[in-house]
Design goal:
- Chains A, B: Pfam families: HrcA.
- Chains A, B: One of its GO terms (molecular function) is DNA binding.
- Chains A, B: One of its GO terms (biological process) is negative regulation of DNA-templated transcription.
- Chains A, B: Keywords: Repressor, Stress response, Transcription, Transcription regulation.
- 2 copies of one chain form a homodimer.
- By secondary structure, chain A is an alpha+beta fold.
- The first copy, chain A, folds into 3 domains: 75 residues, Arc Repressor Mutant, subunit A (Orthogonal Bundle); 152 residues, 2-Layer Sandwich (Beta-Lactamase), CATH 3.30.450; 93 residues, Enolase-like, domain 1 (2-Layer Sandwich), CATH 3.30.390.
- Chain A is built from 13 helices and 10 strands.
- Chain A has a 5-stranded antiparallel sheet with strand order 7-3-10-9-8, with helices on both faces. A 3-stranded antiparallel sheet of chain A has the order 4-5-6. In chain A, strands 1-2 form a two-stranded antiparallel ribbon.
- In chain A, a hairpin with a 4-residue loop joins strand 5 and strand 6.
- Chain A is elongated, with a radius of gyration of 26 Å.
- The two termini of chain A are 47 Å apart.
- The interface between A and B is large, with 43 and 43 residues.
- Chain A binds a DNA duplex through helix 3.
Chain lengths: 338, 338
DNA sequence: GGTTGGCACTCGCCCCTGCAGTCTGCCAAT
DNA sequence: ATTGGCAGACTGCAGGGGCGAGTGCCAACC
């Protein structure tokens, strides 16, 4: 474990570096009020901190820069999220009092809020459709051999699957199929489509064409459990300013464009509550200059999804943590109201 | 108008500058095969081209750089879009043979294709819902005072509006309202919701609660004619590499995040067919280092939407033009098939 | 008259140098 | 254990010289 004084010095270095992005020297550390010893003593301690892997020197006779381990210590001893500033909490309050409308629109707007609060990129992952129950299933004929299955879920999400058929269909058959399938699945979770007992029920349908439609529809519900359209990203322009190499920016944008990466990344930390992944801890080499602050949000007592911000490793962790924590909390409450 | 030789020289300068991003000198122009005169002559012509505003000098005794006017001439005399390279057209073909599924998924995938082909950011604007007819209207009760109206349109798009009610609702009333409204609007265009005759029809509904639901639903259809969810953007990471100032990149990303700007921008050129906006021609000061190549796509004989790429002013116009033209053409055909 | 080679000139770029500043590591003193 | 002092290392910046690319001009040429 770290000496009390070393901890203070490390914290001072990290704080200063986050602010200036410049290597921090012993002289500068000596000026901060919490530090009462001389710069020589600080030098000794900083050398020890470097030996222990908390700090690094870009080159001899330069100041020190935090390593991932250094940031990790800094974040851990930060404890919980701090309070939000007055103007920020005002922003959050007015957002949640004004927002309304569709689930997806709200989630998309939430990325705006979060990125506005933190000046970093915000990621919001919507609730997986699995937790909701099916409110309604409707089959619409778009073309003689093309039908569209429209699912309405209890959380207000709407899913649709188009199905190509082998034969032309009859409106009457579709209506019948629509009714059969509603009877089977409405009120259940989406997972019900996967239950084996369903196949027996389907085989009981007398009419061949109707059975075909029902079977294909159920099959499409089984297959297309995609996580798509669940991830919302906002404020990429904000974060860019934190980096100076265009190549780095390009890499990060590439990662963000492949939304799947972000999803798995966020889900990995889903049951840990509010948490931070620093640099390579994100599991992605390309994000080694980035940190990710994530928190799940809870709807009706269940962890429903997660939100987070992606910024540089030298991000303002306290602000980011509070912003993410507060927004996750308020979002969960808002969605619980319905 | 421009001298034949001056045109060749201008073209050479633009081509070279697009390739290298470095000011082009008379000596370099003299090496291109199409130019048969000496560098001294080229110098004279380049001075004239500068006087006419086609070229500019970053500083005395440097090479020349094209101005917007220079790019404009270059693009205009390029004539139509060229052919696509073999591997590119292969890419397009395999994309359109494989792609399937929802309209929106396809449009989103198209941005991937376009940005992959051009290495620039791709923008795809979906068909406005106004042109499609209503296939089905369904009202689902999400909570005692919250209903969701789900519209299925003939092009496979699904629109939803949630409506907060003042009183608790009865399933039977909702079913009745659903039926009434279907009878009124199914088969018509979305614009039908705006017709004044509809109000008379609504007032004929006897039951008060049913009439209330119908009226609110129609009202929501009138109001929420948003262009949202129609714009797809992809390949932002590609374009970033074309710029060297992080600040520029940030500006451009900011513009892209405000999708509305892009929409209006693309719609301005919608009826002009395949077209190019260079630098300030885009109408946006922040995009003065960018060019936009756009083309509408035609579904069932009607201009349905547009696609485009956003790149640096020194973009490979010929490739971008062909890619946009070909993809717009194929996309339109694909969507016409249904 | 248009075109060309030659030439002087301009300027940005790069490299080198020197200087100021900063920070470290070490050591002797406290 | 802590401190002040000091030498050494290295960056960053400013200034100067050489280099090279490119221009504009001019006289000569077809």
């Amino acid at each position: 474990m770290l000496d009390e004084r070393k901890a203070i010095i490390l914290r001072a270095v990290v704080t200063e570096y986050i602010e200036t992005a410049l290597p921090v020297g012993s002289g500068h550390v000596a000026t901060v009020p919490e530090v009462t010893v001389s710069s020589a003593t600080i030098r000794n301690d900083m050398a020890a901190l470097e030996a222990d892997g908390y700090l690094a020197q870009p080159h001899t006779s330069a100041g020190r820069v935090p390593t991932e381990k250094g940031y990790r210590f800094f974040v851990d001893q930060l404890g919980g999220p701090g309070r939000l500033g007055a103007s920020e909490s005002q922003q959050v309050r007015s957002f949640f009092s004004q927002t309304h409308g569709e689930l997806e629109q709200m989630l998309a707007d939430t990325t705006q809020l979060l990125s506005g609060l933190t000046r970093y990129t915000a990621v919001v992952v919507g609730p997986p459709h699995e937790v909701a129950t099916i409110k309604s299933i409707q089959i619409v004929v778009l073309a003689p051999r093309l039908i569209l299955v429209v699912l309405v879920l209890s959380n207000g999400a709407v899913e649709k699957h188009s199905i190509d058929l082998l034969h032309d269909v009859d409106e009457a058959h579709v209506a019948a199929a629509s009714q059969r399938i509603s009877a089977l699945l409405v009120g259940q979770g989406l997972a019900a489509a996967g239950s084996p007992g369903l196949d027996d029920a389907i085989s009981l349908v007398e009419s061949d064409p109707v059975r075909e439609i029902v079977a294909l529809t159920v099959a499409s519900l089984r297959v297309e459990h995609r996580q798509d359209d669940h991830v919302f990203i906002g404020g990429t322009s904000e974060m860019v300013a934190s980096f100076d190499a265009v190549a780095t920016v390009s890499e990060i944008l590439r990662i963000l464009e492949q939304q799947l990466v972000v999803v798995s990344l966020i889900e990995n930390v889903l049951d840990r509550g509010l948490s931070v992944a620093i640099g390579r801890e994100t599991g992605n080499e390309a994000l080694s200059d980035c940190s990710l602050v994530v928190a799940p949000y809870v709807v009706d007592g269940e962890s429903a999804g997660s939100i987070g911000v992606l910024g540089p490793t030298r991000m303002h962790y306290d602000q980011a943590l509070s912003a993410v924590a507060v927004v996750a909390d308020r979002l969960g409450k808002r969605l619980s109201e319905g």
